[in-house]
Each structure stands twice: as C-alpha cells, then as structure tokens.
Design goal:
Rossmann fold; four-stranded mixed sheet; alpha/beta; Alpha-Beta Plaits; six-stranded mixed sheet; 14 strands
C-alpha cells in the first residue's frame, strides 16, 4: 500500500512539475494517462489564475478532463504547429527512446507530439530504464490483425491482440482500430525496429517515439529534469 501511495505521489509531482513549461499564449498538446492527468489539472488551475492557452487533446479521456478543468480546446486543423506537447510513457530508455500506447491512444499521441516544437514526457522512476523491454503497442486495422501478428513474429516478436477488461472482445481505439501488443524482449535498436514495424501493411502506428526533448522523472517525491543528450 505504501509503495502504491508513493507511486501515486510521484506521478502527481512529475505531472505538476512539467506544467511550468507552459507559457501564456501557447498551444499545447495534452496527452493521455494517469501522470499527465495531473498536468492537465495543474494547467486548469493556472488557467483559473489567468493563464491563456489552447489545448489539443490526444484522446476522449484527455478532452473530457481538459474541458472539466476549464482549458479552451482547439484542433490540429486550426493549429497545425504546436508550441509544446506533454505526455506520459510506458517506458523511456537512457537513449531517449520512448514506448507509449498503454492507453491505446499512441497513434493520436504521436501525431500531436510530432506536430510540436518541443515534446516533454512525465513519468515516475519505474518507467526509466537502461534499455527498452516493454511490449510495443501497435494500432492496426481490424482487417489486418492477422498479417500484422504474422509479420511481428517474423521479426522475432510475440504478438497478442489486446482484450478489453470491461467487455468481451478486443480493445477498440478512438480511431476504431485494434491494438496488438508486440513483445520483443530487450530492444537493442529501437530505431531499426521502428522502421521495420512502419513497413508492415495494415499497421496504422507503432508505439516507439524518437522525438523526446525533455524528460521529467519523479522518485521519492523529487522531480529530476533530463534534457535530450546533445
């Protein structure tokens, strides 16, 4: 119980710390997940104090929370270039490669992250590792789930169609697609794997991100800020 409470406090500390990057007049990508939810709440409080920003949510969950917190929303159609994107992560390695998609929103999260001039990740210390070894979420067309799984196995991975927890059947993304979790064990070359996954027909988007600029890591209530190695 103590570990769970400490982890929750670390998530809050990291999520709130990254809000300091947001300045008046910015257009900000708002990520999905339990850590960045604290960022959205903190930004809502700052908006209540007079901060003027526009938010681009990456999921219905983020959109709902942002509206609840009083953040004015916009779209990439209206603002195709963002000042900043903030999100959580399933795992980040020392080379600044990121795995995302535990919330099944990584396709939209990646579009938003790559539309921003700066991309920041918030996470607790358990997510920061020397090498990635977390299963890579893949958003796939339902029609293509079979071929995607087969191609993953040809690349040396193990493919599992993600099942919903509160209903029978697979998880359905906000885009109406399936999620296949591809376990490759320790990933020695994330960039190479990303390129190979991108070449699979029917794979809409994989969860490897390569554009992280700044990382906020919380451990024992303290937040460490790490910038991308030069």
């Amino acid at each position: 119980m103590k570990d769970a409470l400490a982890n929750a406090e670390d998530k809050r500390a990291a999520g709130e710390a990254v809000a300091a990057l947001v300045e008046d007049g910015m257009v900000v990508g708002l990520g999905t997940g339990s850590t960045v939810a604290w960022t959205i709440r903190r930004l809502g409080s700052m908006v209540g104090d007079g901060l003027e920003i526009l938010g681009v949510p990456t999921s219905y969950q983020a959109e709902s929370l942002a509206i609840e917190c009083g953040i004015t929303l916009t779209t990439l159609s209206q603002h195709p270039s963002l000042d900043l994107a903030i999100d959580g992560a399933d795992q980040v390695d020392e080379g600044f490669f990121v795995i995302k998609g535990g919330g099944a929103a990584h396709a939209r999260e990646k579009v938003v992250a790559y539309s921003a001039r700066r991309f920041a990740i918030v996470a607790d210390a358990s997510k920061y590792v020397p090498r990635l070894d977390h299963p890579v979420p893949l958003e796939v067309l339902p029609f293509a789930a079979g071929i995607v799984s087969r191609k993953v196995e040809e690349l040396g991975g193990r493919a599992t169609l993600r099942q919903a927890k509160m209903k029978d059947g697979p998880v359905i993304t906000d885009n109406g697609n399936f999620i296949v979790d591809a376990d490759f064990g320790e990933i020695l070359d994330p960039s190479l794997l990303a390129n190979r996954l991108s070449a699979i027909p029917g794979l809409v988007e994989h969860g490897i991100f390569e554009n992280l600029d700044r990382l906020y890591i919380a451990r024992s209530g303290e937040v460490e800020v790490i910038d991308r190695p030069k």
